[in-house]
Design a protein that fits this description.
The protein has 10 helices and 8 strands. It is of the alpha/beta class.
């Protein structure tokens, strides 16, 4: 039997007949692409998949993860052979690009497609594979992904089962099992563990998550991501800089050696002029006379602090 006739890739094990168009708990039938892009941070050709087995209350990509129920229209299904040709062309034409990366949504629910795509690309060029995941795959799916993935970015959203269920709609057990397996047996494949810090909701568990990771391998990188209001938590506050810095210190106190954070909400109002100057704009702006690529558009706002200067980064990304 074709595995797409009875999908068992994630821990919902819903058995959806995706080959015939039935959508599983994750919302996926045939593999569909939201879009592709070039990631300078990862030095990769990046593929963003639609659908996800989680329903995260704070998801910043909920139009992608909750597809097709979100009502948005994306690129859709692309044959693996066609996308492989596109990836090869893009990687060859960018001198600094040497990887192909997968994000979403959740890539692991598209494992057979990823396997075929990577195989076709590697027949032509040598590339690394970077995969961002929520860790909800079955052990079998994880083994398949470990066989072709160079680096994982693995998100642990909460430690306690009740909070994890309330945040994502899914149990924490499979995520923690997969995190422990990956960190214990293949620590060199972990680019970073990460957690989105949501004040008043999961910030009290950050130290416990750090202790969990440190108990496996204290040298594994852990990044705290400042929550940005979105989806069902659109009106919830983001974390301040003081909270993020305190949590980093608490994680280090648990024995975790490589901890950093990105993003926070400033206590004071932001000044528009400071933001514009940091982006290289003239004041007042005169976009019609500026011939260069607009840095005000391409600079991610969470990488600039309240004074308009770039935030400190870490040794890992």
């Amino acid at each position: 039997m074709d595995e797409s006739e009875r999908c068992m890739l994630c821990e919902w094990r819903c058995g959806a007949n995706r080959r015939d168009g039935e959508r599983g708990v994750c919302g996926a039938s045939e593999t569909e692409i939201a879009y592709t892009s070039i990631s300078e941070t990862l030095r990769s050709y990046s593929v963003t998949f639609l659908c996800c087995p989680f329903r995260c209350a704070y998801c910043n990509a909920y139009r992608i993860s909750q597809y097709p129920h979100s009502g948005w229209i994306y690129r859709g299904h692309v044959e693996a052979e066609e996308l492989a040709d596109e990836a090869i062309t893009a990687i060859k034409s960018h001198e600094r690009i040497s990887n192909i990366s997968f994000t979403g949504g959740e890539p692991s629910i598209h494992t057979p497609y990823i396997e075929e795509l990577v195989r076709r690309v590697r027949e032509e060029i040598d590339v690394g594979v970077i995969l961002a995941t929520n860790g909800f795959s079955t052990p079998g799916t994880l083994r398949r992904l470990m066989g072709l993935t160079s680096l994982f970015s693995f998100e642990i959203k909460a430690l306690s089962d009740e909070l994890h269920r309330n945040l994502t709609g899914a149990p924490a057990g499979p995520v923690l099992r997969n995190a422990a397996h990956l960190a214990g047996r293949f620590p060199d494949k972990i680019r970073v563990f990460r957690t989105v810090v949501i004040p008043g909701i999961n910030d009290h568990e950050i130290r416990e998550i750090a202790a969990f990771i440190a108990s496996i391998d204290p040298e594994i990188p852990y990044r705290l991501i400042g929550f940005r209001p979105n989806f069902m938590l659109y009106y919830h506050r983001g974390p301040g800089r003081e909270l993020m810095e305190r949590l980093v210190e608490e994680c280090r106190a648990e024995g975790l050696e490589r901890v950093d954070y990105s993003g926070y909400y400033p206590a004071s109002e932001l000044k528009l002029e400071d933001r514009l100057k940091a982006a290289g704009c003239s004041i007042p702006r005169d976009c019609g006379s500026c011939s260069r690529v607009c840095r005000a558009i391409i600079r991610e706002p969470w990488r600039v602090n309240s004074s308009g200067t770039p935030q400190q980064g870490s040794g890992f990304r």
